[in-house]
């Protein structure tokens, strides 16, 4: 390279830092990372975290650890199951009167994104994904109500079925607003 031979390197620049490897006892936790763990352990760890958040949604209590350890698996499961239950049998029949899977999925996630952006623009201190996680888990009462209503409809449609479904939806609404 032309001109590189003319470059002088100053010998008085001190070198800083520790380049030796400390000799001592290593614990098993220091050498273990999630990249090395088996897939089964990863899945079980994630399922336990989602389960804890489901319990937290059912019985709310103050916990900043749940907000700090956000995930999108639970909201994804809730949204997909709600969309599948709302889809019902309309895909098999020629009557497409019910909501379609993509419509429900997009409405829930786009709504969560809009609310999250609004929160951030108003000076919210939680991260984007923390907000999406909380809003996604808030779909749980809707999903539970839809599951119970589907099970009641399997027993048959009628006035009693309508009253039971009305009570279930009212209870889930009350539960979600507590």
UniProtKB/TrEMBL annotation:
Record's bilayer topology term: Multi-pass membrane protein
UniProt GO cellular component terms: Golgi membrane; trans-Golgi network
Predominant cellular place of this UniProt entry's protein: Golgi
Keyword Lipid metabolism: no
GO terms, biological process: endoplasmic reticulum to Golgi vesicle-mediated transport
Classification via Pfam families: Yip1 (PF04893)
Keyword vocabulary terms for this entry: Membrane, Transmembrane, Transmembrane helix
Superkingdom field: Eukaryota
All copies of domain Yip1, residue ranges: 57-177
Keyword Membrane (UniProt): yes
Subcellular location: Golgi apparatus membrane; Membrane
Recorded coiled-coil stretches: none
Stretches that traverse the bilayer: 72-89, 101-119, 125-144, 151-175
Protein family according to the UniProt entry: Belongs to the YIP1 family.
Stated name of the protein: Protein YIPF
Originating species: Donacobius atricapilla
Gene symbol of the encoding locus: Yipf6
């Amino acid at each position: 390279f032309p001109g590189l031979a003319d470059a002088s390197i100053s010998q008085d620049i001190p070198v800083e830092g520790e380049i030796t490897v400390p000799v001592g006892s290593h614990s098993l936790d220091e050498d273990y990372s999630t990249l090395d763990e088996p897939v089964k352990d990863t899945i079980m760890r994630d399922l336990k975290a989602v389960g804890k958040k489901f319990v937290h949604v059912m019985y709310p209590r103050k916990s900043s650890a749940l907000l700090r350890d956000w995930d999108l698996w639970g909201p994804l499961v809730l949204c997909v199951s709600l969309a599948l239950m709302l889809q019902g049998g309309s895909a098999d029949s020629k009557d497409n009167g019910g909501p379609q899977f993509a419509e429900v999925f997009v409405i829930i996630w786009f709504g969560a994104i809009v609310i999250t952006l609004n929160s951030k623009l108003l000076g919210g201190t939680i991260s984007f994904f923390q907000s999406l996680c909380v809003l996604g888990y808030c779909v749980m009462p809707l999903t539970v109500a839809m599951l119970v209503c589907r099970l009641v409809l399997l027993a048959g449609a009628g006035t009693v079925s309508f009253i039971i479904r009305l009570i279930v939806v009212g209870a889930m609404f009350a539960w979600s607003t507590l």
